[in-house]
Structures are given as C-alpha cells and as structure tokens.
Amino acid sequence: MASSLDRLSYAARQAARVAWYAGHYVAGRRRLKPMPKPDFAIGPTPSRAEMTTDMRALFAREWRDIEAGLLPEPPTLSPDPGEFLRRSLLYFRDLPKVDARRHGEADHELPPGEQGDGLPGYYRQNFHFQSDGWLSDHSAVLYDTQVEVLFTGAADVMRRRALKPIADWMAGRNQRGLRGLDVGCGTGRLLAFLHGAWPGLRLTGLDLSAPYLAEARRLIGRTARVKLMEGAAEQLPFDTASLDLVVSSYLLHELPPDVRATAIAEMARVVKPDGLVVIVDSIQRGDHPGWDGLLDLFPHYFHEPYYADYVGGSVESWATDAGLTPLTCERAFLSKVTAFVRT
Fold this sequence. Notes:
CATH architecture of the domain at 155-289 and 303-342: 3-Layer(aba) Sandwich
Helix content: 40-55%
Order of helices and strands: HHHHHHEHEHEEHEHHHEE
Largest sheet: 7 strands, mixed
Radius of gyration: 19 Å
CATH topology of the domain at 155-289 and 303-342: Rossmann fold
Strand content: 15-25%
Strand order of the largest sheet: 3-2-1-4-5-7-6
Number of helices: 12
Number of strands: 7
Oligomer: single chain
Shape: globular
Distance between the termini: 35 Å
C-alpha cells in the first residue's frame, strides 16, 4: 500500500520533470523567431493557468490509481543525470535547424529514398520539423526530449493513462499467458511502462524506424518478454485473432486518412475476441471545446501534414467502423485514451 512518503516522492519527481521541461520550453521559445500569425479562424484557447491546473489534475488522477493499488508507481526511465544533460544539449543545438524549417529557410521534407529507402512516402518527412524525421540515430536520441518539451513534462503521464483500462481488463487474467503489441512503438516509452507494470506479458513493439527501435531496446533493456521488429501499422505481420492486447500511442494523427483507416482495421483484425485495443492520441475537435483553438494552431506551428484531418474526425467512430466496441474514453490533458474490445 502506498504511503505518505511514496506520495511525496511521486509528487517531487513529477514536479521536477515538469520544471525541467517547462524550463526548456521557455528557453527554447526565446531562441526561436516568431512565426507569422495564422490567416485563418482560430477557436477558443485556454490560458496557461487553465492548462497548468488541468495538467496537475492529471498527475493527481494517476496518483489516486497508484494509491488504490491499480497501477504501480512509474519507474524512472533513463535515470542517469548525465544523460539528461547530454540530451538537453543536443536539443538546444538542434533548435536552429528546426527554426529554419519552420520559416521555410530549409526543406522540411526528406528527398525520396534518402535515409529511408523502401519506406512509405508519407513517412519520409520531418514531422514536427525535427531533423532527419524518424530516420536517424540523431533523431531517435532527440525525440523524447522534444516531445516532453512540447508538453512541458506531461507526455509520459499522458501515455501512462493507457495503463488504467488495461489494468481493469487484466483483472482475473494470467498475464504470463497473454500477448500484446504496441503499434508504432517509436522509442519504446509506452512499451517500457507496460513491461514495468506487467513483466510477465509477452510484448512486441513494431515500428518502421530501425533507429527508434534501437533506442527502444536501449531503454527497455534485454529481455525475452519484449520483442522489437520493423513493420508498418497498415500491414501488421500477425495472424488474425492472434493477440490479446493491442496498444498505440500518438500514431494515428501522423497517418494519411486511408492509411489510418487501414491501420485501425489491422488492429481490429489481429486482436482476439474479448481482446483489448487501447489508443492514446491527441484530443479531437469537440473533446474539450474550450481548447479547440489549440488544435487549429498546432499544424500551423509544427509540420503535421495529417493532423487537421485527424482532429476533424473521431477515433471512436473509426474504431467502431473497424468492428471494435467502445469501452472507455478519458481525456488526459491534451490527449485522450480510448479503449475498445473485440466482440
């Protein structure tokens, strides 16, 4: 059972993360040239105080689940302080290149075949204006810092909300007999949290980026319970109804509409009857109406070619169309976590 000391430890660690990445956000903004104001209508946006309050409520929600014994306290991934500093330095060194792409001073798309020969065309892009897209060791080392700075230290806690519906579904099941898949696992953050919570699960992380899979292996470590493999979300290399659990985080908004529909259909195909599918991604228009303006602005300030189409749709509707039955939906700060069962 969690103690008062555990609660204070959790609060201190999360506050330190938020302060660290929020500091990077503020310092980075000062080094970036102002972007031109958008020439289109923008919906309502929250104040910084509103967003801070909402983020704190998310951490409080996670702690309540930990205190209730539903979830373990999250491990500290990459605990070496020297590694934090090294990645911080790399982040600030890369900012001028990001800024050049934001202002059209550098090409933000990778030439066909360069660094990504054989990969889908939609994938060969500098998403978020980041250097090398998802196609180099340099990008793989930078990615998690870039995302945490963007969300001022809340990216991991948003991902971890996927564990709540999984914990509910796992009740009464023997984890050692279950197989799970993380589609588009990237650098393995969600995989690492899943493995930490249920070390008996047999997990596979699938991604198109070999450098990102290498970073995931470094993060998770060598274990026979977690397999990593190259592959595309729209063509999952698994038999029909062969998996008990399928998860995905921050993948759908990076896919063109036709590929996105196929990827969801593939998740539905490979999961067993009574199996669970959990999707973590950006909120969509209408999920929190007072914040819709943030969804308008995001693709203006970042290279997100498919985001506007994503936020105009509904994950719940897309999954239902693929044959999944909605189970739960939770807004987690700027993300939402939707869980479905295969009936």
